[in-house]
Amino acid sequence: MSAAPAVEEAVAPVAEVAPVAAAVAVSAGASDELTAVFSGDRALTILFGSQTGNAAGLAEKTAKMAANYELTASVVDMDGYDPASLVGAKRVLIITSTWGEGDMPDNAEDFWQNVNKSS
């Protein structure tokens, strides 16, 4: 007997915002801080902590979607990422998960410890 092929379930997005809508929202009397986020440097750092690969896969998908909003995303494993680098980052997205009985992923442990040391 051959196994049935794996089927990836389609997941509806929580919200969809067209890039044009985002630009309009900014121009319609937005704060200086929000205007700064939507202008200039379009870099997005996506940090992921993953034990089984699910969060890593989501980080990759998110990076591809970021291009729709004219963002230049870089996906970075939290393992070995220097928290001091966050100071100069304009946009950071952290995608992580838990495993077992709510344990953090192994590759996020050092990052978490370093962030808590420096705060």
Describe this protein's structure:
By secondary structure, this protein is an alpha/beta fold. The protein has a domain at 42-118: Flavodoxin domain (Rossmann fold). The chain has helices at residues 19-27, 32-38, 54-66, 106-118, and strands at residues 43-49, 72-77, 92-96. It has a three-stranded parallel sheet with strand order 2-1-3. Strand 1 (43-49), helix 3 (54-66) and strand 2 form a beta-alpha-beta unit. It is globular and about 45 Å long.
In the CATH hierarchy, what is the class of the domain at 42-118?
Alpha Beta
Strand arrangement across the biggest beta sheet: 2-1-3
In the CATH scheme, what's the topology name of the domain at 42-118? Rossmann fold
Query: How many E-type strands?
Result: 3
Question: Sheet with the most strands?
Answer: 3 strands, parallel
Average pLDDT taken over every residue: 80
Supply the key terms:
4 helices, three-stranded parallel β-sheet, 119 residues, single chain, alpha/beta, globular, Rossmann fold
Secondary-structure map:
Blueprint: H1 19-27, H2 32-38, E1 43-49, H3 54-66, E2 72-77, E3 92-96, H4 106-118
Parallel strand pairs: 1-2, 1-3
Summarize the structure.
The chain has 119 residues and is an alpha/beta fold.
